[in-house]
Every structure is written in structure tokens, then in C-alpha cells.
Design goal:
331 residues; mainly alpha; ABC transporter involved in vitamin B12 uptake, BtuC; 13 helices
Length: 331
């Protein structure tokens, strides 16, 4: 009961952190606005400069940051649970690499000529890569944690090589690709959030369904099977959730590295390995992290801004090294 109370309090604190980060994202930037101006823009806009800044620029990107941060945070927690590796990242499944290749092909063919079309190219590529990894890993003894990780790494390397070979020989494609590949919520409006929302909601629902199965899988495949769990079904549901959530995130904002690692690891340190608490905590942590990364990039960038993917890379890389040094690779 005591532990449950602590977890409930910690989860409520994470919700508060997300709310405060959301409010700060609306108020702060190259032009700082008071809380009164923000509330006025949200409740009773009259077309002033402050209203335009809040409603047209800051609110859409903050909403996108909440949605995509939650998706990538949950995907990171699921990935770490299924591979039993605290260093696991959604990109290890080749999802980001699949999305990148699809975007490059779309740019080269003239299909990805808008944000909306780029989103759909990335979604298709990410989902094809996810199912491809699952099919390859399932051959033989089935999609084991090690098999999924190794297959995903191999597919990611192959798709990454194909992407590089295309952009190196096409300057126009490279120009379009490099702006997407850095990972950012800048310029993403509510229309982008609406396009990926169905995939995100399905992925989050599958993650919630998969939480209890993950608790059983943590006991070992033999024990879980003895308790009546279908290992293949549990792996497939988890993989689908990871694929959909990562695809939504990559499609909307480009590949944002280390967010899944950061959110999953922080949530696990606070809430332990109980996935019914860990998964929502990772989602809230991911949402707060992406909002704050975007906000920091706006505050330190001067007249311009540092992309959220760059900020998270600067934070995530040291965390990755720290986890390795502590040998915390096995869950």
C-alpha cells in the first residue's frame, strides 16, 4: 500500500511537470509573455501579436511535443521491456531508418512535397520496416529479445546505407532530407498531430494491453508460458505498439534520438519494473522531456533556435554513457 501511494504521488507529480512545462512553452521564447497574455490568447483572442504568437506558433508545436514525446517515451519503455536491455531504443528496430528511406524516396520522386505528404511517407516506411523486422526475427525459433535486437540493428544498418547512397548523389533530395532528419517540432502544426493521432492512439492502447504481458515476460519465457501467456502474441502486440508509436513520432518530427532511452530509464528508476505504472510514467516523462528540449532550444538559440533533437542528443548521449558505465544493461 505504501509503495502504491508513492507511485501514485510520483505519477501525479509527473502530470504536474508536464502541465508546467506546457505553460512555460507557451510563455517563453524569443519574446517572453506573461501568464495573463497567454490566458488571454487562449480564452479571448483579439488578433494581437501575443495572440498570434501563442495560438499560431507556440500552441501547435507544444501540442505536437506532448503527443510525440509520449509516443516515443512509451515506445522506449516497451522496447527496454521486450529486449530486457536498459540501453534499448526504438530506433534499434530499424523504424527510424525505414521512415528516413521512405522520406528520401518520396523527396526524390516528388511525392513528399509538403509536411503532410512527408508524414505519410515516413509512416509507411516506418511500418514496413517494423513488420519486416518482425517477420525476419520470427523465422526459426521465433522473435526472441536477442533476435529482435540483432535483426533490427541489421535492418537499420542496411536501410541507413541505402538512404545515404541516395542523398549523396542527389543534392536536391539532400537539401529536403536534412531539414527533416535533424528532429524538431518547429513548423509542425495541429494538422500534423491530427494525421498521426490515430496511429498514436492505437499504439498507446496496445501498449496498455501489453503491460501485464511484459510483467509476465520479465519472469522468463518458460515461466510466462507456464502461466498461460502466449509468448508469440505478447511479442507481436508489443512490436506493433512500438512500431506504431515510433512511426507516429518519426513521421511527425523526424528521428529524435535518445528520447525513448531517457524516458524509459528515468521512469524505471522512479517506478521500478511494474509496467502498469512504468508505461504511463514513461509517456509523461517523454512528453515533458520533448517540451523542455524544444523550449531550451528556443531560449539558447538567440535569433534562431537549436532543434529539439540536438538538445536531446546533448543530454541523452551522456546518459547513455552513464548507464553503460554502471553496467545497467540487463533488466
Amino acid at each position: 500500500m505504501r509503495i502504491r501511494g508513492f507511485r501514485a504521488g510520483a505519477l501525479a507529480a509527473l502530470v504536474l511537470v508536464v502541465v508546467l512545462a506546457f505553460a512555460a512553452s507557451l510563455a517563453l521564447g524569443s519574446r517572453w509573455l506573461g501568464i495573463g497574455a497567454v490566458l488571454h490568447a487562449l480564452a479571448d483572442p483579439n488578433g494581437s501579436d501575443a495572440d498570434v504568437i501563442v495560438r499560431s506558433l507556440r500552441l501547435p508545436r507544444t501540442v505536437v511535443a506532448v503527443l510525440i514525446g509520449a509516443c516515443l517515451g512509451v515506445a522506449g519503455a516497451l522496447m527496454q521491456g521486450h529486449t530486457r536491455n536498459a540501453l534499448a531504443e526504438p530506433g534499434i528496430f530499424g523504424v527510424s531508418a525505414g521512415a528516413a528511406l521512405a522520406v528520401v524516396l518520396g523527396l526524390q520522386l516528388g511525392i513528399a512535397d509538403s509536411v503532410g505528404s512527408t508524414v505519410w511517407c515516413a509512416l509507411i516506411g516506418a511500418l514496413v520496416a517494423t513488420f519486416g523486422v518482425q517477420r525476419l526475427a520470427s523465422r526459426g525459433s521465433g522473435a526472441t529479445p536477442v533476435g529482435l535486437a540483432l535483426t533490427g540493428a541489421a535492418v537499420a544498418a542496411l536501410l541507413g546505407a541505402l538512404t545515404t547512397s541516395i542523398v549523396l548523389f542527389d543534392a536536391n533530395t539532400l537539401d529536403g532530407y536534412r531539414f527533416w532528419a535533424v528532429g524538431s517540432v518547429a513548423g509542425r502544426g495541429l494538422d500534423v498531430a491530427a494525421q498521426v493521432l490515430p496511429f498514436a492512439l492505437i499504439g498507446l492502447l496496445l501498449a496498455a494491453i501489453n503491460a501485464r504481458d511484459l510483467d509476465l515476460l520479465a519472469l522468463g519465457d518458460d515461466v510466462a508460458a507456464g502461466l498461460g501467456l502466449s509468448i508469440r502474441r505478447a511479442r507481436l502486440v508489443g512490436l506493433l505498439a512500438i512500431g506504431l508509436l515510433t512511426a507516429a513520432g518519426v513521421a511527425a518530427c523526424g528521428p529524435i534520438g535518445f528520447l525513448g532511452l531517457l524516458a524509459g530509464h528515468v521512469a524505471r528508476r522512479i517506478f521500478g519494473a511494474r509496467n502498469s505504472w512504468l508505461i504511463p510514467a514513461a509517456g509523461l516523462t517523454g512528453a515533458a522531456a520533448l517540451i523542455l528540449a524544444d523550449l531550451v532550444g528556443r531560449l539558447v538559440g538567440g535569433a534562431g533556435e537549436v532543434q529539439a533533437g540536438v538538445v536531446l542528443g546533448l543530454v541523452g548521449a551522456p546518459l547513455f554513457v552513464l548507464v553503460v558505465r554502471r553496467r545497467a544493461v540487463a533488466l
